[in-house]
Amino acid sequence: MIRKIVTIDAAKCNGCGLCVKACAEGAIQLVDGKAKLVSAVYCDGLGACLGKCPVDAITVEEREAPAFDEAAVQQHLTGTGKAIPHAESDPAKPAFSGCPGSRIMNLSAAATGPSAPTGEVASELRQWPVQLHLVPGQAPYWQDADLLIAGDCVPFAYAGFHGNLLRGKKLIIACPKLDDKTGYLEKLAAIFQQNRIKSVTVAHMEVPCCTGLVRLAEAALTASGKTIPFKDVTVGIRGQVLGDN
After folding, report:
1. Are residues 133 and 192 in the same domain?
2. What is the reported pLDDT for 96?
3. Is residue 46 one of the residues assigned to a domain?
4. Could you give the C-alpha distances from 94 to 11, 91, 97, 98, 99, in angstroms and in order?
5. What is the CATH number of the domain that holds 120?
């Protein structure tokens, strides 16, 4: 049938997850860091998610789609119904067809593969992706996480980055000077708001432009309405820690 239904532009989507929360029918979920329509039969086409998208990635179009099924929605929300295939997908394609660099991976200690060769320092990275544009707004590994937000240059300047800063934390990296910061505030605020973040550490270089990362994180924390323990670590260009508060 021809009817109104939500369409999501994956190229624009930043994975903030605000639309997921706005959809009472559960028609939208985050898949590999992008918002996806789970099945057309769950979407009523009213567009409650439209006003929640900070990057205008969602539109309501009138096109051919299966009819909205309220009974299926109730079964979907309660987990009592039979799984319905993704109505927008091509079954001939693999489950993940996006850029391999943005595929979400939980690199738990048990899944990191062989240990580092003798004499080398083992990586403490426990999730992928890490760049702020690419990380999802919601992910299992954000729950009860100690979050490290680091400037792009910090790991190169600070030799103790993995052992002293990253260990035991989940990572987000960004450059407050060179990145296109569109959506950064909304993405961070969504991560703080929609997940159980235990603490936030911001590690930045001593150069003035990098302190913008601290202001971004503080603004996002305020926008989230949550109170989360916050630490600011300043790294010098010679690799020393200049401040930790």
Report:
1. yes
2. 46
3. yes
4. 19, 7, 6, 10, 13
5. 3.40.50
